[in-house]
Fold:
Amino acid sequence: MSLPPVPAATPSPFWWRQSTGDGVHLAFTSVEAGNLARHVGPQHDVESHRLRLQEAMGVPAGSLRFLDQVHSAQVLDADDVAPTVAPPPDGGATTVPTGDAWVCSDGSVPLAIMVADCLPVLLVGQRDRDDPRTAAVTAAAHAGRPGLLAGVLENTVTAMRDRGAVAITAWIGPGACGSCYEIPDEMLAEYATVRPALASTTSWGTSAMDLRAEAEQVLAQAGVTLAPLAGCTLEDASLFSHRRAPGQGRFAGLIWMDPLAPPHR
Ligand SMILES: [Zn+2]
Structure:
């Protein structure tokens, strides 16, 4: 007697997903979610991938905010920015805010940050150390080499503190790791003295850059608690990597929150 076939598992759009006790959800998408960047793949595909992703997250279509990322240290306040809408059918331009980090003062806006080798950093700030049920300050940052050097993470932490965060935890998502991210010798020499945490060596013995070590150092110095997480886009084919496979796509770091329960009457 033959056994009945085992149904194939549905591939998850999430490479990693976690929820905190206070109703905040954090995730990084996998290649199964498809390319999410308008500047990389066919526009129609990107819009359908974004819609499917929002459905998987359980958030209203069109509520997830994306940025036009430019490797800057610019932090935007999600409360001040209108939702990113799909391009009109006539192909006209849409306005997408430019910057490399989002902060939301009460966690109510679902935030996305896109990467493929740079680090996606998700942050949750508690307003009250003793009461995790109060609305959290949430943030998402794009931390590649230029952004890290320009201070994108320092600016993000400052923006969170300005909005009342007293205890901040960060999840540094997958990027090109310090054993894979090969750079020219001159670049390493330039950073070795000013940013020693960036200096690394590839597993094959050449000059390399360790974005994660640098990000960890910056966040620790800013008093942020680091949640354990690892992952390398060059080694893991379930993530998009610009260096390994240029032009294939961008994945996203996501942070969103359950709507707060209405006050008891
Ligand atoms: Zn690696």
In short: Residues 177, 179-180, 232, 234-235 surround zinc ion (CB under 6 Å). The first strand starts at residue 14 and ends at 19.
